[in-house]
Automatic annotation (TrEMBL):
The organism's taxonomic lineage, starting at the top: Eukaryota, Metazoa, Chordata, Craniata, Vertebrata
Family classification: Belongs to the C/M/P thioester hydrolase family.
Active site (catalytic residues): S220 (charge relay system), D314 (charge relay system), H348 (charge relay system)
Annotated protein name in UniProt: Acyl-CoA thioesterase 21
Matches recorded under InterPro entries: AB_hydrolase_fold, Acyl-CoA_thioEstase_long-chain, BAAT_C, Thio_Ohase/aa_AcTrfase, Thio_Ohase/BAAT_N
Species of the source: Salarias fasciatus (Jewelled blenny)
Length: 411
């Protein structure tokens, strides 16, 4: 993840250890729901009594090899099937660090790492205008800035971290809620695309936002919403869809006199892992087949640029299959206005970099814990790569990008 160095307290090395002796490093954080996440790694001090995680390999524990950020991305929850929750960005995420004698367990050193989200001068503006609910982030400095609507998952509520971090890169970002937030319905009978149209209009008319078009970033369930916005609404220039379905799912989607029913599930394709987890990867029907086409989003109507990101081991659904269909639809209509980036061994929740990986968790539509897929190291590498690609994509396709300063820091 890219953070300002001024916002971080870094403990990249441990000094004054006994030369060539084993050392254990530990990390711990408590998320907004009180769930504890931990990681540990075994190191061997060099001849000068130093362990430098940027150079020294971990010999065991939560990860192996030279992994400067291993103590962060490899953290796992004490409570199984928990996804790290960070809803508000008004406070940093604090990671506690410890160094222990690898033979006796004696505590040798402690430190903290603060992952800040709000840069100095950034504005955080809660949105309650008409029926719109969300938070708008305005970068510091003189605008106008390229604008982005940030849509999150079916889990609902509002997630601010990604939006605030993009704002720190020079984008004006509206983190938009669409269910289970404040007075928005918890279980809506349908979703109205007009709601999202109002959000686009709101963002485009803000004086801090450069025109003429804006961007959209989406993941999971909101991917179909982003596709629909791009297909029917004006003023969309660039859309990112991460692990999406090219058809509407779960809740009927309405726009004017059109209704897109949710894609049907084929329950015979639901499987169970050896550990008893539900695997719904192949549960959704083919949206291009027969009556299922009523759920298909007509993305051939879109005039924007697309970035499709695919985790090949996504078990929430078959993202690779749906992405291939979306790309084929555009290509069959003479459009090459898309990029596809694919990540082997990555799972469903591709977030910003160095977030603890979530292999399984509660699924709101299923009502139970399901498998999300992926392997920790590959997933972490995918998040890091995608984060930079997303910024470059918006920089390339949104007006006002010449005002963006891209600075990358390793922490």
């Amino acid at each position: 993840m890219a953070y300002s160095q001024a916002r971080l307290k870094i403990l990249p090395s441990v000094r004054w250890l006994a030369p060539h002796r084993p050392v254990e490093l530990r990390s711990k954080l408590v998320d907004d729901k009180g769930v504890v996440f931990r990681a540990s790694a075994q190191y061997k001090a060099d001849g000068a009594g130093l362990v430098d995680v940027c150079r020294s390999p971990s010999l065991g524990g939560s990860y192996r090899g030279v992994e400067p950020m291993g103590l962060f991305w490899s953290m796992a929850p004490d409570t199984p099937h928990s996804k790290l929750q960070k809803k508000t960005v008004l406070s940093p995420t604090v990671v506690e660090l410890e160094a222990l004698n690898g033979e006796t367990g004696e505590l040798l050193a402690t430190g903290t790492n603060e992952r800040g989200y709000m840069t100095e001068g950034m504005k955080r503006i809660p949105l309650q205008e008409g029926r719109l609910r969300g938070v708008l982030f305005i970068p510091p400095g003189k605008g106008p800035f390229p604008g982005i609507v940030d849509l999150y998952t079916f889990g609902g509520g509002l997630s601010e971290p990604r939006a605030s971090l993009l704002a720190g890169k020079g984008f004006a970002v509206l983190a938009l809620a669409y269910l289970r937030y404040q007075d928005l319905p918890k279980h809506p009978e349908n979703l109205d695309l007009e709601y999202f149209e109002e959000a686009v209009t709101y963002l485009r008319t803000r004086p801090e936002v450069a025109g003429p078009g804006i961007g959209i970033i989406s993941i999971s369930h909101s991917g179909a919403i982003a596709l629909s916005m791009s297909s029917f609404l004006s003023g969309i220039s660039a859309t990112v869809c991460i692990n999406f379905c090219n058809a509407n799912t779960v809740i009927p989607l309405h726009y004017q006199d059109m209704v897109f029913p949710p894609l049907e599930a084929e329950m015979e394709n639901v499987k169970f892992t050896d550990s008893g987890l539900i695997d719904i990867r192949d549960a959704l029907a083919d949206p291009t087949s027969g009556k299922n086409r009523a759920s298909l989003i007509p993305i051939e109507r879109a005039t924007c640029q697309f970035l499709f990101a695919v985790a090949e081991d996504d078990h929430n659904w078959n993202s690779a299959f749906f992405t291939k269909q979306a790309a084929a639809t555009l290509r069959n209509h003479g459009k090459e206005s898309f990029q596809v980036v694919s990540y082997p061994k990555a799972g469903h929740f591709l977030e910003f970099p160095h977030m603890p990986y979530c292999p399984s968790g509660f699924h709101g539509a299923v009502g139970s814990v399901v498998l999300f897929g992926g392997e920790p190291k590959a997933h972490s590498e995918a998040q890091l790569d995608l984060w930079e690609r997303v910024q470059a994509f918006f920089k390339s396709h949104l007006q006002g990008h010449e005002k963006i300063l891209f600075e990358y820091f390793c922490f």
